Amino acid sequence: xxxxxxxELIVDPADRLRSSSESEPPPPRQPKGQKPTPPPRQPKxxxxxxxxxxxxxxxxxxxxxxxxxxxxxVAGLVAYYAHDxxxxxxxxxPTRRPSIQFVSADGQVFAAFGDxxxxxxxxxxxxxxxxxxxxxTEDRRFFSHFGVDIFGLARAAWANLRAGxxxxxxSTITQQLAKNLFLTPDRTMKRxxxxxxxxxxxxxxxxxxxxxxxxxxxxxxxxGAYGVDxxxxxxxxxxxxxxxxxxxxxxxxxxxxxxxxxxxxxxEASHKRAVEVLGNMVEAGYMDQRSAEMAALGGAAQAVKRAxxxxxxxxxxxxxxxxxxxxxxxxxxxxxTTLDLALQRKVEAQVQALLSGPGAKANVSQGAVVVLTPDGxxxxxxxxxxxxxxxxxxxxxxxxxxxxxxxxFVYLTAMEQGLAPQDVYDDAPVKLGNWSPGNYNGRFEGQVxxxxxxxxxxxxxxxxxxxxxxxxxxVATAHKLGITSDLGRDASLALGxxxxxxxxxxxxxxxxxxxxxxxxxxxxxxxxxxxxxxxWSRQGGGVGKVMSDQALAHMHEMMSAVIGEGTGKAAxxxxxxxxKTGTTQDYRDAWFMGFTADYVTGVWLGNDDxxxxxxxxxxxGLPAQLWKSVMMAAHQGLPVHALPTPDLTPSTMADTxxxxxxxxxxxxxxxxxxxxxxxxxxxxxxxxxxxxx
Length: 693
Hints:
five-stranded mixed β-sheet
C-alpha cells in the first residue's frame, strides 16, 4: 500500500507577510546580462485638508479674541472719559456772567465786564454771508459728516506734518460747539476724547441746522462778545441780520484768534484775515472772485472806528463799588458814571508823556492822578503809566506816605484852636525825645509867620504846631475831612509819616474847595438795566460842615501862598488856587495836591519799589508841572471863579464866633500865647492822654 504525499505548498515571496522590522521587499533578481530595472517613482504626498482648516480656525479665533479685547479696551476708555462729562442736557440754557457796561457822564460806553450776548437769532434770520463764511473757513463738510470729519483730520495732519508744527486743526463745528459749551480749552487726551463723544451725542440729538444755529449764537468772538449778533453790534454797530459779506468775513475770521484778529485791537491783522476768509468763500463756491475783491476793497471802511480804551483804572475801581449794591446782583446792568471821558484821555496822555520824558530821566516810573469836583464827583482817575503793563491802581490801592502834603490838617487844627496865619513861630532846631527833624534846605530862619512856614513847608514849625495842639486832634481833623486810613498819634504825623491813598487825600482836600463841607468821593450816579429801568441811583452825600469859616479863610490864605510865593510856584494858574507840596524821605514819593473853585486834583509820582529812589524829585517839581497841565485841561473854556473864601469882617465874625469848638492854644516861643491858654492846653492834653482823643 502506497502512502499519498500532501501537495506541495508553493508560496510566492511577494505574497508573504512582512514583519514590522522589515522595510521594503528585496528587488527581484534580474537575469544575468540584463540591466536592472529602476524602481517605480513614488508620487509626492499632499498635506491633508484637515490641517489647512486647523490653521484657519486658529487665525479666526485669535482675531476674534483680539477684537473682543480691543472692544473691551475701547469701551473701558469711553466709560472712563464719559463718567464725568458735564450735563449736556443743559446745552440750550447755559449760565453766563452778567454783563456790566460803564458809561461816561456824556453817555459813551468806555468799559464792559462779563459776557455780552446779542439777540438769539434763528438761522434764517442771520445774514447768509455769516454762515457761508463760517462754513467755508471752519467746516466745509459740515452737512455731510457725522460730527467728526475723517478727511478733515487727515488733511490737517498732513499740513501739520509738512509744516513741522501745528498750522491747521481738524475739529468740526460740532466739536467746537461741544468744547465751547462744556469743556475747557486744555489740549489733553481726555478733553479731545470727551469732545468727540459729545460731538457724536450732539449730532444724534440735534439737526444740522440746529447745531449751526447754536454755534453762531454762542461762539466767543472777542471783546466779551458771545454770538454773531453781539459781535456785529460790538464791531460794526449793526445787527447780525444786516452785516455785509466783508463784515461777515471779519466775524468768521475772529474764530481763529479773537484777540489777535479783533478790528478794535488790530485793524490791519483783522483786514488781512478777512481777505483770507473771502478767498475761502470763493473756493467753497459761495461767491465769485470779483465780488470777493470788491468786498475786500470797500471793507476796511466798514469797521467801527473806536478810540483807544480809556478809564480802565477807574472802571476797575467802580466795579469794586458794585459789590455793596444788592440791586445789581446777577443782572445785566448799565452803570452811569461821573467820568469826563475827554478829560480822562487827556490826563492819561499827560501822565504817559511826563513819565516817558522828564520822568524817565529822573528815575520816575509810575504816577497817579485824581480829579474831583468840589462835591466829590470823580472826573478823571488814572492809577499808573500803562494799564496793559500793570493793573495795580496806585490812586486807590497804593498806601504811601504823603509827606508835607499832610500839613494842611495840622495847620487847620491849629486854626480851629484860634491861631492865625500872622502868628509867629520859631524856625529853630527842635527835639522831641530822640527825634530831631530838620528842614529840607537844611537851614533855619528863626522867627517866621505861620503863613510863611506853610508856604515854604518848614518842618520845624509843623512839628511844634502838632506838639502844641496834640496829635490826637490832628488825627480827628484828618478823619473828619476824609482820610480813612489809620494814622499814627505821634509828632512825626506832622511830616506825613502815616500812609494813605491818593484818592483819600484828594477827597480830604475837597472841603477847602467847597466852603468847608466834607464829601465822599464817588464815581457812580445811577445803575439801570439795558432797557433803562433804574435799579439804583445816588442819593445826596457828604458829611456836612467840617471846619469853621474863620479856619477856612485862614487856610485859603496860606494855601494860596504856596502857589503864589512858596514851594508850588511851578503850578501857578490863571485863576485863584490853593495847594500843598509833599516829598517823603529819600525822594520815595512826590505829591502835589491843590484846588480851584471848580476842581480838586491830586498828583503822585514815584516807583513801586520804594527802595528805588527818584533823582531829587520834589512835590514842587514834576508833580507841580503835571498838576498844572491837568488843571489847565480841566478848566479849558471855564470862566474864572474865586475861591469860596468866607467873609471875615467883624460883623460876620460875630455871627460865626465859637463855631470852631475846642480850646484855644498858643504857639511856641514868640507866638503871642498867654498863660491862660497854655494852662488850658496842658489840661486838655492831660485829659486826652487819660481818656484818649
